[in-house]
Amino acid sequence: MTMTTTTERQVMERILVRLERCVGCRSCELACRVAHSYSGSLVEAVGERPAPSRRIYVEPAEGSPSPFLCRHCEDAPCVRSCPTQALVHDEETGLVVYDPERCIGCHGCLMACPFGMIQPNRREGFIAKCDRCRDRDRPACVEACPTHALVLEGDFLKRRRRNAVERLSRAAGWALGESPGLGVS
Predict the structure, then answer these.
(1) How far apart are CA 111 and CA 33, in angstroms?
(2) What is the rounded distance in angstroms from the CA atom of residue 163 to the CA atom of residue 134?
(3) Please, which pLDDT band fits residue 6 given cuts at 50, 70 and 90?
(4) What is the pLDDT of residues 89-108, one digit of tens each?
(5) Residue whose C-alpha is closest to residue 64's, from 158, 177, 167, 149
(6) pLDDT-derived band of residue 83, with 50, 70 and 90 as boundaries?
(7) Which of 58, 139, 174, 180 could serve as a FRET partner for 8 with CA atoms 20 to 30 Å apart?
(8) DSSP string covering 134-177, please?
């Protein structure tokens, strides 16, 4: 028996939602529909019947647009409610994965999801839920967001660290009597 270390696992990064940046353009919804269309093309996806389903929803919350998507919970109520194991928690990726071949259409998962992120869908089985675009390098919604309201956790943390180092470097330079206008290389 071999043990899998965290570095060997293909854990999918979480998508962080930065509410203060969302302008409600719905680019994420459109990109999601196109990514889950048969054609993979915006022009052709518009004419597909039934229309491709979205797995992210931009809804108003206290007067501001807010993107909502599956959180792929570790202790997912949707997984616990599924009598056929059509929804399972994939330990390798950390995702809640849907197998339409096992689904019987009871919609117990729809009722169990506390966030309402599983929707009925007759196109690809009985439900539609975020699959984190497993066949892509980056989720379509993250790629499409023009304001970076949707970001991958790793990218966000790297940017935060880089900004903190830059602020500390500037502060250290100022403390040494350097001109704030010159900046630090």
Answers:
(1) 23
(2) 30
(3) very low
(4) 998 889 999 999 999 999 99
(5) 149
(6) very high
(7) 139
(8) TTSSS-HHHHH-TT--EEEHHHHHHHHHHHHHHHHHHHHHHHTT
